């Protein structure tokens, strides 16, 4: 396998057949010292891959280090080229995982306490016409390399956070060889919808809680991978917002010099909640329109049309001939640029909620608003099976109460 063109370009921008050791031979399972060592300017590699293939992997590792410098300049580069072990033999990779106390085989790569990344070598990317969008092949290695840089800057005791998971997902997108393909667009659209629909349909604000979540227990109670990815993309999208990431990560690591720094950051995040939702709305609308115009399969276009009706109350026929559909998409894009609509579905009922606040019988008045909101939700969501829609049906009452209280 030669160096992939996308990663080769990344290097310029930024400046498995082995059967393992002979039976009975002593092997240091921690650092794989029996394997050949390749040294580069930015990375070192031990690998059981054949000559040539291991050189490609070393170039990939050096490209990843350069990409980290560009994507996350707030993380200082390592003082010396970091060590990585890439194995083509799944049995040997499993042995290393057990030696490091991981028990079951990890998802393709892991970081050990000494700062070495161990990765199972995988073949190249799948064809672009696969039915289900998959994660890029480079995801496990890229995520582990990112974790190593993060730990080096913030300490090995850094707990789990949604921020780390979101940043790792963003980094994988930056370095994925298929980052310009249809598969990546499908993944982005699905993640944006997964992040935005619960908010659009009445969920509580999520930016601050996503950024503030620390530890596996908190992660299980709130947030999602899609929200983590979207929050990180939003904060990285603006140079004035990006430092909030650093403060939150330092707070998670217990490395803040002033506790007041987190109080200030949290206040800024809370003030950014409406901007985050507006950013999500624009990003979702654009990806849905791209799918309506360019998706090669009718199913993708039907789903995009259903999402557009739910989010913007616009019916666009996904079965029109290509040229007519392209004109309709262009006209819709212009219309949404002038009036994108409210970031939240229940904003449509704010005049009714204002009457509830002033009503003598609030219960009776609220029941009318509840019925109207349910009817409109059913009309807009007809034929659209996203899980957030069913959750919104079940949670419509509490969502209306939150909207009522927010405007009181």
Describe the structure.
The protein is mainly alpha-helical. It has 18 helices and five strands. The radius of gyration is 24 Å and the shape is globular. A five-stranded mixed beta sheet has the order 1-2-3-5-4, sandwiched between helices. It is 58% helix and 5% strand.
In one word, what is the shape?
globular
Terminal CA distance reads 63 Å
Rg over CA atoms, rounded to whole Å, is 24 Å
Strand order of the largest sheet: 1-2-3-5-4
Q: Point out poorly predicted stretches.
A: 1-28, 127-132
Number of discrete helical segments: 18
Key descriptive features of the protein:
408 residues, mainly alpha, five-stranded mixed beta sheet, 18 helices, disordered N terminus
Summarize the structure.
With 408 residues, the protein is mainly alpha-helical. Helix content is 58%, strand content 5%. The chain starts with a helix and ends with a helix.
SSE layout and pairings?
Blueprint: H1 5-13, E1 37-39, E2 44-47, H2 53-71, E3 83-87, H3 90-99, E4 109-111, E5 117-120, H4 139-154, H5 162-175, H6 182-200, H7 207-212, H8 216-221, H9 225-236, H10 243-253, H11 260-271, H12 273-294, H13 298-312, H14 322-338, H15 350-358, H16 362-381, H17 387-394, H18 396-406
Parallel strand pairs: 2-3, 3-5
Antiparallel strand pairs: 1-2, 4-5
Helix pairs in contact: 1-2, 2-4, 4-5, 5-9, 6-9, 6-12, 10-11, 12-13, 12-14, 13-16, 15-16
